[in-house]
Write a sequence for this structure.
């Protein structure tokens, strides 16, 4: 299996069909494939060899879609950069992966000078925006126009397709290594779930650097469907794209759905009749928001996909039938679904033994979608993948029908607005402030984001700090979405007999009276 295989099929079967629509530009599969082959040739001329990492720091665009296919076409490995990260975090991912080429758009060109001055592996920077070419960068369109198309290198099967950075439990991001088999098997499973019907249209509204968007787009590549793109999520942009492009499928996190259905633009007349399915992930949707969304989009299916970057990204599906008024009577709405195709899911205890149904344990997943490992982190890989099973760190139970219900998070992670935030990364930033003696970071309930980052501090004697000062300090080191939204100063942190911070004690007053301790 290889990621570019579906593109070859589409060119052969419907070369003149629209492949991509963005900002008034529409390109057929023939045109898109030609540009992919020339971009691959340009990257090779810049020195990209088999297995070399090529990074991209950009908002969504048609060029981002070309990058996703051109890098493997030319024999390289993808490294999509998280656009919400700080320059320091992006630099870390470039250096850690050894990325030699970076594509950057208008929005992020200002970061290049800082990054380039410290990146030892970076040789070339390509400007892929629509503005004037910045000094010291190569022009994307000039490179594509001047390059000759090259044959597909056909990296396949267990060849590395991409390194996708996610949060780190030790305070530093981890590069998840995904092969072509990983990506394609997850895409085929989503296709088998009927999430990419013939003659459909997929809208890239979630960030394209995120594997959730790339993963949900894969079955639409297999089906030869049209890809519509908005630069970044906004309710009006999404609604306009659905109406103008005849979009049938879109991926949105629950917070996006809430913003969409509550936005005044929903009351403006538009033809949204093409929309067939909204897939959501990262957290279960609240019933109140779900009800508003069903009312706002009558006849549209809602499907939950549960997974993680390490699973390429799919593990389970909670299908549309469980989201209907009739289906909710069966009590599956709060479930994260059950194992999708090509995948085994079980709940295990501390020694890896499968737990009885109804007993809380850790979600473990096995299948061709399980990552190859963490880039240059063999110990963390061995801890996460044991006997072929990916241990997710999510605490859940499984009912008699095979549905899993997530009730806790065994690893120290917060999910806010669909983004994974590891407490260690935030704590690492906070403790670099000279006034802080100790800290603990937890997730607390948030109606808007599901969970919000909360910091509990112990200050050094004689020191004081305002919450806004601490947050501003954190923003210089980590992404804005990882920074605390609230701060409490304590005399001491609660400790166990072994001296470990008891975060359960810190969480208790916030989660009291709720059915579970995570959103």
């Amino acid at each position: 299996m290889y990621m570019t295989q579906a593109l070859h099929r589409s060119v052969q079967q419907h070369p003149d069909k629209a492949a991509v629509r963005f900002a008034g530009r529409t390109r057929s599969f023939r045109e898109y494939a030609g540009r992919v082959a020339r971009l691959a040739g340009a990257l090779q001329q810049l020195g990209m060899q088999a297995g070399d990492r090529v990074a991209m720091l950009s908002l969504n665009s048609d060029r981002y879609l070309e990058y996703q296919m051109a890098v493997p076409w030319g024999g390289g490995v993808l490294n999509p950069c998280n656009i919400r990260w700080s320059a320091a975090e992006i630099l870390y991912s470039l250096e850690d992966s050894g990325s030699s080429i970076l594509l950057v758009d208008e929005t992020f060109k200002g970061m290049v000078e800082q990054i380039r001055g410290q990146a030892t592996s970076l040789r070339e920077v390509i400007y892929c925006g629509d503005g004037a070419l910045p000094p010291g960068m190569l022009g994307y369109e000039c490179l594509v126009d001047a390059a000759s198309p090259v044959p597909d290198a056909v990296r396949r099967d267990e060849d590395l397709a991409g390194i996708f950075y996610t949060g780190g439990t030790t305070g530093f991001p981890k590069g998840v290594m995904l092969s072509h088999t990983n990506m394609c098997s997850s895409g085929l499973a989503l296709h088998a779930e009927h999430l990419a019907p013939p003659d459909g249209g997929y809208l890239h509204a979630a960030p394209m650097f995120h594997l959730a968007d790339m993963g949900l787009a894969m079955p639409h590549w297999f089906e030869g469907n049209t890809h519509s793109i908005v630069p970044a999520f906004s309710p009006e942009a999404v609604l306009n794209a659905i109406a103008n492009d005849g979009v049938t499928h879109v991926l949105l996190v629950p917070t996006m759905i809430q913003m969409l259905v509550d936005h005044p633009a929903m009351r403006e007349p538009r033809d949204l009749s093409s929309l067939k399915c909204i897939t959501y992930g990262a957290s279960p949707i609240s019933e109140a928001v779900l009800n508003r969304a069903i009312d706002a989009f009558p006849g549209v299916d809602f499907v939950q996909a549960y997974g993680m970057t390490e699973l390429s990204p799919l593990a389970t599906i909670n299908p549309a039938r469980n989201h209907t008024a009739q289906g909710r009577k069966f009590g599956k709405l709060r479930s994260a679904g059950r194992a999708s195709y090509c995948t085994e899911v079980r709940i295990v205890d501390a020694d890896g033994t499968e737990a009885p149904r109804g007993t809380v344990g850790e979600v473990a997943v096995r299948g061709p979608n399980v990552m190859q490992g963490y880039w240059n982190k063999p110990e963390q890989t061995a801890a996460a993948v044991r006997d072929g099973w990916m241990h997710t760190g999510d605490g859940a139970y499984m009912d008699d029908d095979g549905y899993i219900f997530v009730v806790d998070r065994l690893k120290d992670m917060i999910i806010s607005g669909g983004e994974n935030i590891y407490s260690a990364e935030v704590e690492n930033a906070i403790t670099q402030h000279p006034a802080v003696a100790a800290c603990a970071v937890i997730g607390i309930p948030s109606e808007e984001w599901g969970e919000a980052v909360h910091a509990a501090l112990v200050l050094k004697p004689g020191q004081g700090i305002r919450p806004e000062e601490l947050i501003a300090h954190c923003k210089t080191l980590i992404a804005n979405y990882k920074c605390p939204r609230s701060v409490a100063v304590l005399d001491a942190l609660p400790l166990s007999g072994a001296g470990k911070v008891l975060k359960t004690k810190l969480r208790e007053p916030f989660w009291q009276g709720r059915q579970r301790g995570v959103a």
User: Anything to note?
Assistant: Residues 181-365+389-411 form a domain with the Rossmann fold fold (CATH 3.40.50.12780). Residues 20 and 227 are 5 Å apart (CA to CA).
